[in-house]
Structures are given as structure tokens and as C-alpha cells.
Input
Amino acid sequence: MKTIKDKIAKLSFVALLLAVTSAMFYTPTASAHGEKSQAAFMRMRTIHWFDLDWSKDEVAINDTMTISGKFHVFAGWPETVDKPEVSFLNIGIPGPVFIRAGSWIGGQLVPRSVTLELGETYEFKVLLKARRPGDWHVHTMMNVEGGGPIIGPGKWVTITGSMGDFVNPLTTLTGDTIDLENYALDNVYFWHALWMGIGTAWLLFWIKRPMFIPRHIAVTSGKADTLISATDKKVAIAFAVGTLGLIMVSMGSTNEKYPITTPLQAGLMRGIQWIDMPETTINVKVEDATYRVPGRAMQMTLTITNNGDSSIRLGEFNTASVRFLEPNVLEDESGYPDDLLAEEGLTVSDNSPIAPGESRTVEVTASDAAWEVYRLADLIYDPDSRFAGLLFFFDEDGNRQMVMVDAPLIPTFI
Ligand SMILES: [Cu+2]
Output
């Protein structure tokens, strides 16, 4: 006997099924990737990206561009994030708007995960081929197992043309040339449709009868056996035999058609070459560091000792991809993204050249709206409220030295 309850239960089930199915096919266009919502300590104390270059601002479909630069793997990697033992160099973009034609770390092709050493600096390059027209925010990114995607700075790149013109030709190891963009696509659609059809038929067969409550009552009253009829059993056997038969036949014909296949390649690459950085001749001690909430400014008291033979000046503080520049020493000519560049964001209480052998204590202030806009100030609410970043010093000949700083950060609210 059909009751209204059964009908409601059935309808709700079908509605749920439809909702789940349509959610699988719903892919809205994303223009940013929540880079600001990634915890500030993740961006400040893991991978420091610098010297970045996006080779183009605008690129046509099928044309290529590169993103190159360096990254420093912070030695004081947070305890709460797994060490970068299995890391994959990636690009943060909204879906496959580019394809990654190749990526290199230290000059070596890295199509797989790599092991990175804490405290080392690496050179990298990623080659991208434009696939889908639009304006896209293109980030550097490092996927770390147990740490998630660690996002670097993003720059807007425009892709022009029509997606229909995109091709991705490839010669297989057996000498055939295929276009990966639509290779065997009909087959993919066919098998998805077939298995979804079989799955749906199986579900419909079982939900055409009273569901949840009547069945529950039957089971609790010891009449569970009456729920499954002899026809049900026959249909179930037909489904099982049919499914197995279909798999056997299609597998046989696939093996015949494609006798040579190789599995997807995985595995870990070790021994990636890092940059042999010269021993730094500058010693920096962080005496204290505070973040003034109303002023959106971080203030550090640094004791800088110059052990080199040329006088030096502080030119840049780089943290979480935000670059604070001292305009009297350094000007950006690389076209770094505006929102991450504080061109006059760094002030030093006395930035006259520090002579060889001299040691000086200075007040350094890094101030910019980026502290708030990029939610870096959230750091002060962490249980381990530390900051880290790169200081760049320049000597008389314009040579650059990089010094890592890492210290507790104390907030002030007045
Ligand atoms: Cu973005």
C-alpha cells in the first residue's frame, strides 16, 4: 500500500540524487583563489618567492609564457606543517586555463614531486601554454604533502583568442601523433554515460517500492525476508553477471586495440640542485619586533653588522610575497604586481651606508595596507606569533645579499 509518506521519501531521494548529480557538473568561474585566506604564518614561514618574472602580460591561445624566479625554503619551517619532503612545483590558476608544458627546478625537469631541503634557495621555471581566453590571476605555488598548496604571488595575465583553436599535439612512444585536447573524448563520454546509466537503473529498480520507514518496520518485526522477492533476486543476478561480462568483453577488446600501454609515472625525485649561495657577510640580530595594529606597520629593531669589505644599505624586506622597498636604495623594474609592492613601504631610522666592520642598531618600519589587505596581520592572533622574511642588502657596487630574519612579533593596539 502506497502512503503519502512513501511518496515524499521517494521524491526527496530523487531530489537529492539530482542535486548531487548537478553539483558534479556545476563549475562556476573563479577569478581569485583565496590566496588571502591562507594562514599568514603559512605564507611567511614556509616558501619565500623572489626575483619573479612573468614573461608576458598578454598571451594568445596556443602561445607560451614562462614564470621564473627563485624560492627560499625557510629553515624555521612551522612544526604544524609537514616538512617539504614531497613537494610539487605548481601554478595556482582557476582551472586548466593554461596547460603546464614543463617545469624545472635548478635546471632539472621536474614532472614529479621533489624533496626540498630546509634553508636552501632554488631556482625554478614553469612553461605554460595558453588554453582558455580571459583574465587570469597566475600564481606560483608549491604543493607540499601534509601542508597543502602553499601559494606565492599572483599576477594578472590576459589570454586572447578562441578556445576552439587550442591544440595540444603529442607524439606517442609508438609513433602516433594525437591531440591530447580531445584524444578519445568520445570514448570517455560513452563509458561515463554507460556506467551512470547502469547505476541509475540499479537505483531506480530498488527505489520503486516502499522505502525507509516501511522497510524499517518490516526488518524490526522480523519480516525482512519478505522484502526481497524471487524476481528481485533474478534481476540482481542479471545486473551482477551483466556488469562482469561487460567488463571482461570491453577489457579484452581494449587490450587488443592498445597492446602497448605504460602506467602513469609517479615517484619522488631527490637531490634537486639548489643555488650555491655565497656565505653572507652581514649579520642581523632582531632585538625586537612589534606590529602596530592601528598604523598597519611592523617595526623591527635590528642590529646590523657588516663583516664584508664594502659598505651596505638595506633595500628590501620581503615577506609572504609582499615587497617593502626602501625607495632611496631600490626601485622595482620587474613589473611586480602592484598590490604586493610597497614601493615606499620600508623606512630605516638611519640608512646611511654601514661601513665594513661597523655594527649599527636601527629601527626598521615596514608599513603598507597590504598587512591588512593580505591578512598578514592575522599573525598576531596565532598561538605561535612569529614572523619571518627576507632582508636584501646592497653594497656600493650594487651587489645584493640576502639575510633571513625570524623572530617573535608582539602586537600593540594603541
Ligand atoms: Cu589569485
